[in-house]
Amino acid sequence: MDHHSEDSLTIVEVEGEIDVYTAPRLRELLIDLVNKGNFHLLVNMEKVDFLDSTGLGVLVGGLKRVRAHDGSLELVCTQERILKIFRITGLTKVFGIYASVDEAKEAHGRDK
């Protein structure tokens, strides 16, 4: 898990599995970023191949944290089975989900 900033957007790179074992690391990173004033987050999940309910909870929790500061948490997701989880849970209505980092950055620039 790594992150870097581009303009006002902080991009969090995640790969592998986001599950009960790895989600706490993501939670801590998101909390730390928000505590340091990063309120516009983009979680790049292009290389994530598994997501469970713990991971979903971490993402929703992160969204609540940034929204408390009028921020945003958006996702880049290209894996169909993970997109299906977001559709089934109704979270496609909650998160901005993009097919690429460039697409998300472009949308973020328009929303400023």
Automatic annotation (TrEMBL):
Q: Which PROSITE patterns match?
A: STAS
Hey, what's the signal peptide range on this chain?
none
User: Keywords in UniProt for this one?
Assistant: Phosphoprotein
Gene3D superfamilies under this entry? Answer: STAS domain
What InterPro entries would the database entry show? Anti-sigma_ant, STAS_dom, STAS_dom_sf
Q: Output the Pfam families linked to this UniProt entry.
A: STAS
- State a single Gene Ontology molecular function: anti-sigma factor antagonist activity
- Superkingdom, natural source: Bacteria
Where does the STAS domain lie? 1-108
Q: Which family does it belong to?
A: Belongs to the anti-sigma-factor antagonist family.
The protein's role, per its UniProt record: Positive regulator of sigma-B activity. Non-phosphorylated RsbV binds to RsbW, preventing its association with sigma-B. When phosphorylated, releases RsbW, which is then free to complex with and inactivate sigma-B.
Q: Which NCBIfam families match?
A: ant_ant_sig
Record-given protein name: Anti-sigma factor antagonist
Provide the species name. Planobispora siamensis
